[in-house]
Each structure stands twice: as structure tokens, then as C-alpha cells.
């Protein structure tokens, strides 16, 4: 038997650190079949994820403002230590606006998540300035890996190296590229309770057998299953989102009116994207000194015909 491409493929050679046009380091991960992911050290943000055919799977606004230290409107942003608005912190926390560094000596992951994958380990620690606004010492580790088949996995670990407990919320704010939002349905959220941000976080129960879009949506689905499917009928593509340690799913599409009010978002771009975030929002995690929390999200993009019974196994 001959070796498969994945077996002889050198995962270390498939990770390249380069600089963008602003001089900020970013990482390119490559899979053996042609898939790729691009991650900026600014915010630890995934700014591109392409399949084996070179098709971009993440949405980035054409009006996105590439101005440090702000995160880019699109891709996958890391929301920590909070999701949404609150307190003295900026919306969605500060991790997405900070410069991360390569984690040269990460502690091993329990699942050995690097076998056969190209990956990068990034690290964020608080600066003196951060400690003024959020006075808690932490280490936030992020491993981003690309599997030979093109699946993208993000694993975050938050460790309390403080003298006292602290609490946080978290989300992978994920902009998926879709053909037309009116052709999209999300399965796996049926019968769940959700908090509706358009109605002052009032609690409702999902009545439909799938979520479809006819107007602005901004919801936090609670205690969701660990597998969610986002079906794009026109492209005959399904995004499968698997998660661990992240009980909630945030779904957002700004629709027409809100799109026109956002300076870093095109008026019609709400049609080409949907945000589906693996998140920890309703019940923040509290870590005692020395404790660590782990949250994982894996996304795959598969032909819709492949789904059905295979999806939930």
C-alpha cells in the first residue's frame, strides 16, 4: 500500500509566518489538498479560510477598516472577556484588538489535536493597560489548526494566574460566506430557548423546524446541541459547526436598515453573510486561581448532499 498524501505531508512546512501590508505578522496554514487559512496576530483573528478549490468560506466586508488596533469586520474574531456590551470594557472585550504572540511552549492539549494538521499556537497575556480596565491576570491560548480535509478548528484555553477568581464570557464571532441569506437555513436550534437582542434580551422559544431569514436576526440560543448545520441551498454547501465547552449559539444578520448605519459594512452585504457563533454568553465561567477553561469550535464545509443522516452521527 502506498502512502496517502496526508501521511507523507509535512505539517510544519505547511505553516508560514509572513507580514501583511501593514507590517503585522500573520500565519498561513496550508492543507495537502489545497485548503488554506490565514490568521492575523492582530486579534488572533482568522481572516481567511479557503477550501480545496480555493473558494473563500468566510465573509469579510468590502468596507472593512484595516486599522490597528481595531478588528476587521469579518472572518472569525475572538470575543473575550465578554461578548456584547457591558461595564467599562469595549463591545466584545479587548482580545480581538490586541497583538498576540506565538506561543513557543504551549502545554499539551489533552486530545493531541495536532496529528496530521497544520497549526499555530498563539498567546495573549494582559498588558499593564489592560489590567487597569480588567484587573485579572490570565493566559489566553489559542490553537488554530487546519486538517488535511480542510476542516478548521479553534481551541481556546483561559487560565487564571490571578490571586482571586474572575468571570468571563466568550465567543468565536464567525462570519460565514453564503450565496444569499434568503436561501439559508440553520438546523439544530429547533425547540431551543433564545434571548432576543432585538427585544431587550426577552426569552422566547424557537418554534420552527429550522431557522430561516426574512428580517434582522440577533439571538442567543441557549444550551444548544454540540452540532449545528448551516445550509446554503443555492451553493449546495453545508457548514457543520461542532463545539465543546461553548453551550450557546449566537445568530446574527443585520439586514438592510442596520447595514446602512454601519460604516464598515456595505449596504447590501447582509445578503452574503450570516454570523453563527459558538459562544459562552448566558452563564459566564468563573475560574479560581490556577483553574483553566477550554472551548473548541470545528467548522467543516461539505456538499449538502453529504449531509442528512451523516451529520448528526
TrEMBL record:
- The protein's superkingdom reads Eukaryota
| EC category | isomerase
Query: Could you say which residues bind substrate here?
Result: 73, 91, 96
List the InterPro entries hit by this protein, alphabetically. Answer: Aldose_1/G6P_1-epimerase, G6P_1-epimerase, Gal_mutarotase_sf_dom, GH-type_carb-bd
What is the reaction catalyzed?
alpha-D-glucose 6-phosphate = beta-D-glucose 6-phosphate
Q: What is a biological process (GO) this protein takes part in?
A: carbohydrate metabolic process
Entry EC no(s): 5.1.3.15
Q: What are the protein's GO molecular function terms?
A: carbohydrate binding; glucose-6-phosphate 1-epimerase activity
CDD domains noted in UniProt: D-hex-6-P-epi_like
The protein's UniProt keywords, in alphabetical order, are: Isomerase
Q: Name one GO cellular component term.
A: cytoplasm
Task: Give the protein family.
Answer: Belongs to the glucose-6-phosphate 1-epimerase family.
| Designated name of the protein | glucose-6-phosphate 1-epimerase
Q: Which organism is it from?
A: Trapa natans (Water chestnut)
Q: What is the lineage of its organism?
A: Eukaryota, Viridiplantae, Streptophyta, Embryophyta, Tracheophyta
